[in-house]
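Exercise 7 asks you to align residues with tokens for two separate proteins.
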Amino acid sequence: MNLLSETDGETAVSAAVSFISGAVAGKNVQNIVFPESFSEPRGVFVTLTENGDLRGCIGYPYPVLPLKAALKDAAYQAALADPRFYPVQEEELPFLDIEVTVLSLPEKLTVPANLRPSVIEIGKHGLIAESHGMHGLLLPQVASDWGWDPAEFLDQTCIKAGLPKNEWQKDSCTISVFEGQIFRGVHPWQ
């Protein structure tokens, strides 16, 4: 995985904060100057939390857009269009924390289904489960945050996809792993 520098990570968080602030206020954000590394296509997720509870999380698992474009869209979507939550309101911003997770390219696991837990590293890998036209993704930090072992992480990723929790035990279910570089902003709107 081509890692971003800490300075690039600070830029990513600052840009996401600007995009979200503008979106909830209905204002256009001034052009942000990004480092060259943000022109490279990358997967990225923007996660918003309030007092540790999820408030919005949207992103791109695959590198289909330059990082700066994917980041902008993910930030807007996490704040205003996550179907699990009502849109973020301007008065909520001071209470929100933000994470920007830049992803490596997902790779399909090629081990037999029963060996999948043995190759998943908690805290390192994120998961994508795909079966029967449905798919779900959980970022690497989710398993660590919840104290899950690899089997529970696989179960929960399948549930996120709308599948039975043990669907990962079938060879017909595709499981992909990826890594994420996480950059955080604690109450960055204050």
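Second protein for Exercise 7:
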Amino acid sequence: MAVSISNNLASLRSSIPEGVTLVAVSKFHPAEALMEAYQAGQRVFGESRALELEAKAQELPGDIDWHFIGHLQTNKVRKVVGHASLIHSIDSERLLRAVDEEAAKAGRRIGVLLQLHVAREETKFGFTPDELLEFVTPGLLASLKAVEIRGVMGMASNVDDDTRIRSDFREIRSTFDRLKTTVFAGHPEFSTVSMGMSHDWPIAVDEGSNMIRVGTFIFGEREY
């Protein structure tokens, strides 16, 4: 049976509390599927490959708000900076500096989220909460020319244990709160907690997420 993207979006929107941004994770889905979501009113889309983002941004309407949500290699930063308004996956100082340099060269101001690693999986990228709290200093913020740190992003462990998932999300939100009350006090732009996907977003929202990344529920299984 064909997936009704517009129906799926309507169902999802009716469930999401006010104040929570929906990022439609469109990676690996064709432009036609994105266009159906666009025609149903969706404007924020998440891609995880620089070349795919570049191709879709050139093909689809200009008022789409592109987010980059995948692991970003420094040699692909230029392509992403040209199109994305928000990069969710800043997982090292090297990457942050590369985005800052390329955004400055392009004359753009780019929003970024700092990626937290709290999940059990060793393969995930990101800062541990302690690393992040040590990394972000007033000096770091003052040194950035074209990047605006707008919040944090994280994923829960890929387990069938709601208690563990809830605990992971709580740790991400707690780290955001600590940053917000210290180094980002007086920085209203630091306001985003991006956590929660198709299978766990209700728990994430319950634990303080205000941006969720949902793909499968909207578009169906990905086409590889």
